[in-house]
Write a structure and sequence with these properties.
Elements: E1 9-11, E2 21-23, H1 26-35, E3 43-47, E4 53-60, E5 66-75, E6 83-87, H2 92-104, E7 109-114, H3 125-139, E8 146-147, E9 151-152, H4 153-158, E10 165-169, H5 179-183, E11 190-194, H6 202-209, E12 214-217, H7 226-241
Parallel strand pairs: 1-3, 6-7, 6-11, 7-8, 7-9, 10-11, 10-12
Antiparallel strand pairs: 2-5, 3-4, 4-5
């Protein structure tokens, strides 16, 4: 069942069930009461990434405080996607965009990966989590992606489960269309690896292509920005062998 986009959706970090009453935090109460100007009895949709989605009604308990009364479940909790998204962190504004789009595209886990050409050498996990939750609220995604710890590419590959195939976006790969390579992949527990501005180093490409659980794919004849390449690759994977 698709999300109901006519109602405001809100992530609640609390158990959800019909008849429950969940007090809102200061920021969420301010958003509903002051920014959206919702009054008593206003209807919203709530989810927590575990129990599914529920209808809820707003009950102000003061000028700056409110509670949500949980009603009937509107959608059951789906399983988390079997697609991991591995990406080299970009500059902050584009990093926010990238995490939001990966969430919208339905990945199950998001992991920052430091490479030879990565411009950022640390990431703000709290900021990434906030972007994931905001995107999930807006796009109707109930299975919120997990955020993995940032890791060096070498360490990621050394600890990788070889039964999980990594699809590697290789700008040097021959050909323009990734469909043939993707269609030949039998596995469905997958990861997509996208590099930084400037792409992977030659050393990294050699290391990746030597691994039996890595499949390189091209992304067409044009040079794409790293964030554009990630969205294009996610679209190709989901359309060919994903959950679309």
């Amino acid at each position: 069942m698709r999300a109901n986009y006519k109602l405001q959706r809100l992530f609640l970090d609390a158990p959800l069930s019909p008849g429950a009453s969940v007090p809102l935090g200061k920021d969420q109460a301010h958003y509903l009461l002051t920014v959206l100007r919702f009054g008593e009895g206003a209807e919203v949709l709530v989810f927590n990434g575990r129990d599914g989605e529920f209808g809820a009604t707003l009950k102000p308990t003061g000028k700056k405080a409110a509670t949500l009364e949980i009603g009937a479940q509107t959608r059951a909790q789906p399983p988390r996607s079997r697609l991991d998204f591995l990406f080299a962190p970009l500059k902050v504004g584009r990093l926010d965009y990238l995490v939001q789009k990966a969430t919208e595209m339905g990945v199950g886990r998001i992991t920052p990966v430091f490479t030879d050409h990565t411009q950022l050498h640390k990431v703000n996990g709290a900021r990434l989590e906030a972007n994931i939750l905001e995107a999930a609220e807006q796009c109707g995604n109930l299975a919120i992606p997990e955020l993995g710890d940032a890791v060096r590419l070498e360490a990621l590959l050394a600890d990788w489960d070889p039964t999980r195939r990594i699809i590697f976006c290789n700008e040097s790969e021959a050909g323009n269309n990734p469909a043939a390579a993707l269609s030949a992949i039998p596995e469905r527990d997958l990861a997509l690896l996208v590099g930084p501005e400037g792409g992977f180093s030659e050393r990294e490409r050699e290391m990746l292509t030597a691994l039996p659980f890595v499949t390189p794919i091209p992304l067409g004849p044009r040079i794409l920005r790293a964030d554009t390449a990630a969205v294009a690759a996610l679209t190709a994977v989901q359309m060919t062998i994903g959950d679309w």
